[in-house]
């Protein structure tokens, strides 16, 4: 998002541990009973979460089925503690207990007292359990125990059965009401997700090969409880429809309850070009929609809505709220938002802004937001025939600069703390699909798959130049070095560091990172280390055969290499040749980036046929002669993973292998 980073709410600090809490916990901190330490087993061994002391002790103490506690935690955080640091919506611990008091105070300071309802599940859980609030925030066992106390209290108050042997389906309404969610639709989504997790099981693989699992459980069907909640959802929809000022062209799958909050299209000055905050177009016919760009807001949801409804600001298609995944749509699918910092990519893409902060790993992205975003993205890919892969569903950090001068200023959200592998799992399109576990070999196209939880990578500068980003134990990338050694220097990015300075571990420096799902060609192998071609150099990363961080792609789309005697140039957009424009004054220069593809280098193809065109939109009115028109060319390009960002190469300069 094109805003200066705003500061997230204050966080409670906690000691950093590189071990997942379910592999180190004793469950004694809150319960006072010394349960045995759960030892980390060999790679691939599974820890039964429903039998783990953190959940069994809490379940016995308050009469809650341990499997239910495990399923709630999986739905809320995927069994992650985040070292006691809150989500963007101030939810703490593996049960995501929301500090409603702090959240309300933060909104009040910003003048947003009435912007949204607030549920204080942290305070309620503290009251129900008698545990200190700081302990519930920072200690995983205490967090689970407090949540169990809250669930049991609500269950008993409703007159429903309590006990470790009760049917988890009998807790359906209680789960919905204690999840910290403020809308009927989000409460229904949580309760349904928990029920599905119980029936189908849950699984989490850590980057070191350790596995956590919840086996499928036989549970009943909460017909009456679900009927009551779906009735609340229908009533809420009727109320929203009655209050709506007008129905916009909402583009979303059924049941997602997307709100229409239009971005203004206004002329605010005398000049025909003094307008905002987007452009009218005729998509998907002109131009075609080929990419989805994932952003984070670098602001609160309320501020985000204020910005997108300002005619003098920029725009995007969707905003997503952290607390419950609520989605607002701002533009008709036909129109072009101003969100990617690259007009070619703007004209061919849909932008989704997620409430969060790219530099604030501890302020993590919420599960409700991941789930609802995944549903929306899958729908958009199906609707516009966009391949559901990482060449077409990209981060803002993968959008190329239009020219070399623009590269250092390009944005890098959603950042290293966005879990791409989990995101694609939610879309039913695992990034592991189409890969093999055989050892890598020179010439292979490999897909980066380091895992997220426990993927510790060096990062600095999240809060100040010297800090280590909370230890950065959960990240979405591998670090790239000049030699096969953990002590070797990071690879260079001459476009990002145009003063010749080296790449760094700063959170905003993407120069030496390969993100999950991106694909590269293997240049060399040395023991546990693999080198790929990256920005004109061999870039080494740790890739042990027993716990690989990249896998060979079985049937890659292709590889490109420079034709003999050619130094293939790369581009940030696929603009037509000058002869394609009907008016010479319209011509857009085809300017190469400083990166080139030299002899012997190979890069993985992401798209063999990106559109060669330019959508001309310079004025407010659709009636302006020679404006709001699409110019298509005959030159052909190929999209490749060149570095951290994608790039385009001209077909006449390369061979496709």
Report on this model:
By secondary structure, this protein is of the alpha+beta class. It folds into three domains: 21-234, Lysozyme; 259-561, Lysozyme-like; 562-656, no CATH class. 24% of the residues lie in helices and 17% in strands. It has 15 helices and 29 strands. A seven-stranded antiparallel sheet has the order 23-22-28-27-24-21-29, with no helix packed on it. Strands 6-11-10-12-9-13 form a six-stranded mixed sheet, with helices on both faces.
What global shape is seen? globular
CATH superfamily of the largest domain: Peptidoglycan recognition protein-like
Strand content: 15-25%
Give the number of DSSP strands. 29
Concise structural overview:
The chain is α+β, with helices and mostly antiparallel strands and 657 residues long. The strands form eight sheets. A seven-stranded antiparallel sheet has the order 23-22-28-27-24-21-29, with no helix packed on it. Strands 6-11-10-12-9-13 form a six-stranded mixed sheet, sandwiched between helices.
Helix and strand topology:
Elements lengths: L20 H4 L3 H4 L14 E3 L4 H10 L3 H12 L13 E2 L4 E2 L1 H10 L11 H9 L3 H6 L1 H18 L14 H6 L6 H17 L1 E4 L5 E4 L8 H21 L15 E2 L5 E2 L7 E2 L14 E6 L4 H8 L9 E3 L6 E3 L13 H5 L1 E6 L12 H18 L8 E3 L24 H7 L18 E4 L28 E3 L33 E3 L3 E8 L2 E6 L2 E6 L7 E3 L6 E4 L5 E4 L24 E2 L5 E5 L5 E4 L12 E4 L4 E5 L4 E5 L3 E3 L1
Helix pairs in contact: 3-4, 3-8, 4-10, 6-8, 10-11, 14-15
């Amino acid at each position: 998002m094109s805003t200066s980073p705003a500061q997230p709410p204050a966080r409670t600090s906690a000691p950093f541990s590189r071990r997942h809490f379910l592999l180190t916990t004793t469950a004694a901190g809150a319960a006072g009973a010394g349960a045995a330490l759960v030892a980390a087993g060999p790679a691939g061994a599974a820890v039964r979460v429903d039998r783990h002391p953190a959940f069994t002790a809490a379940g016995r103490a308050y009469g809650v089925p341990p499997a239910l506690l495990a399923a709630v935690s999986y739905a809320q955080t995927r069994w992650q503690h985040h070292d006691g640091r809150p989500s963007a919506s101030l939810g703490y611990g593996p049960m995501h207990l929301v500090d409603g008091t702090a959240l309300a105070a933060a909104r009040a300071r910003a003048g947003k007292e009435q912007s949204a309802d607030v549920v204080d599940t942290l305070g309620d859980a503290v009251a129900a359990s008698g545990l200190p609030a700081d302990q519930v925030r920072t200690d995983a066992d205490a967090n689970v125990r407090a949540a169990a106390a809250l669930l049991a209290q609500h269950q008993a108050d409703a007159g429903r059965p309590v006990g470790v042997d009760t049917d988890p389906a009998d807790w359906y309404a209680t789960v919905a009401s204690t999840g910290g969610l403020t809308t009927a639709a989000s409460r229904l989504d949580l309760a349904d997700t928990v029920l599905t997790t119980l029936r189908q099981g849950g699984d989490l693989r850590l980057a070191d090969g350790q596995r956590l699992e919840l086996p499928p459980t036989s549970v009943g069907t909460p017909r009456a409880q679900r009927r009551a909640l779906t009735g609340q959802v229908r009533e809420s929809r009727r109320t929203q429809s009655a209050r709506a000022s007008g129905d916009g062209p909402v583009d979303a799958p059924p049941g997602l309850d997307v709100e229409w909050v239009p971005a203004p299209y206004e002329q605010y000055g005398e000049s025909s070009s003094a307008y905002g905050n987007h452009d009218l177009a005729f998509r998907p016919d002109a131009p075609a929609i080929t990419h989805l760009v994932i952003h984070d807001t670098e602001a609160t949801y309320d501020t985000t809505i204020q910005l997108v409804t300002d005619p003098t600001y920029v725009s995007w298609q969707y905003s997503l709220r952290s607390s419950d995944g609520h989605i607002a749509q701002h533009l008709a699918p036909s129109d072009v938002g101003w969100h990617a910092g690259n007009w070619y990519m703007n004209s061919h893409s849909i932008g989704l802004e997620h409430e969060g902060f790219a530099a604030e790993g501890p302020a993590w992205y919420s599960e409700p937001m991941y789930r609802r975003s995944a549903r929306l993205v899958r729908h958009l890919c199906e609707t516009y025939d966009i391949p559901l892969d990482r060449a077409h569903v990209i981060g803002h950090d993968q959008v190329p600069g239009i020219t070399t001068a623009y590269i250092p200023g390009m944005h890098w959200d959603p950042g290293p703390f966005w879990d791409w592998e989990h995101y694609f799992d939610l879309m039913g399109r695992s990034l592991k699909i189409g890969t093999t576990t055989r050892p890598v070999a020179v010439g292979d196209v490999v897909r980066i798959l380091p895992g997220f939880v426990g993927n510790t990578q060096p990062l600095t500068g999240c809060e100040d130049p010297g800090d280590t980003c909370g230890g950065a134990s959960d990240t979405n990338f591998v670090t790239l070095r000049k030699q096969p050694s953990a002590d070797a220097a990071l690879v260079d990015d001459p476009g990002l560091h145009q003063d010749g300075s080296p790449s760094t571990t700063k959170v905003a420096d993407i120069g030496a990172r390969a993100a999950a799902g991106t694909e590269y060609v293997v240049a060399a192998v040395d023991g546990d280390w693999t080198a790929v071609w990256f920005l004109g150099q061999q870039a080494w990363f740790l890739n042990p055969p027993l716990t690989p961080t990249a896998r060979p792609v079985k049937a890659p789309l292709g590889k490109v290499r420079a034709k003999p005697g050619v130094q293939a140039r790369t581009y940030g957009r696929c603009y037509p040749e000058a002869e394609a424009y009907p008016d010479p004054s319209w011509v857009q220069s085809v300017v190469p980036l400083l990166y080139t593809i030299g002899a012997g280098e190979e890069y993985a193809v992401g798209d063999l046929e990106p559109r060669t065109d330019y959508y001309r939109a310079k004025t407010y009115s659709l009636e302006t002669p020679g404006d709001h028109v699409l110019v298509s060319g005959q030159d052909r390009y190929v999209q490749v993973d060149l570095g951290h960002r994608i790039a385009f190469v001209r077909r006449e300069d390369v061979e496709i292998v």
